[in-house]
Target: Dehydrogenase/reductase SDR family member 6
Amino acid sequence: MGRLDGKVLVLSAAAQGIGRAAALMAAKEGAKVIATDVNAEKLKELEGTPGIETRVLDVLNTDAVNAFVASLGKVDIVFNCAGFVADGTILDTDEKTWDFSFDLNVKSMYRMCRAFIPKMIEQGTGGSIINMSSVASSIKGAPSRSVYGATKAAVIGLTKSMAVDFVEHKIRFNCICPGTVDTPSLRERINALPNPEQAMQDFIGRQKLGRLATADEMAYLIVYLGSNESAFVTGQEFVIDGGWSL
Model:
């Protein structure tokens, strides 16, 4: 018996990193997984995986999101994983970067939740919506993460607001707040820096457990929040940061 037997999970940014790990782990736990991403080529790597269906989806496109959700049957779990890490202080952040960060990190969740909530209400069986935040948010200030921290703080606020508004429909909303996770995206950003080796050591150094998190460690939390084990949990931010925020 899998922990997600009989449940349908939809997630964004499933082609790599945390999203990919969550898709694979949820499928192993018995869920029917609908894995979406804007990167069609990377998404193809999941094709043929038992329990996983892939769909190309641009969460920046409201019409595409609405059409996608309308095409689905029953959905029990949604994991809004898509996001972008902008580097720099507020003085380094131009309006284009500010607007894009809020569009992808926050407004994409607005689009997805606004489309999925009525479906879950109509189903009458509740559901679990999980949003990707970060410990770099209202939880902790991080250097050179001005707009990123602002967007992730907004995710926490949005999550709590929706949890209050739809608790009577048994729809649960929670968000995860990772520290630094070893993903392809992180490696790409580190390798683009003048001294990648030192940058990696700096990232590791701020995690009090002395290492980066793995994508699978985030996926375990996603499975818990999507399962019946967390049936009494809503409106919470889950810090999973190796002690960085202590």
Observations:
- The chain has a mean pLDDT of 97.
- Residues 8-181+215-240 form a domain with the Rossmann fold fold (CATH 3.40.50.720).
- The CA atoms of residues 12 and 36 lie 5 Å apart.
- The first helix runs from residue 17 to 28.
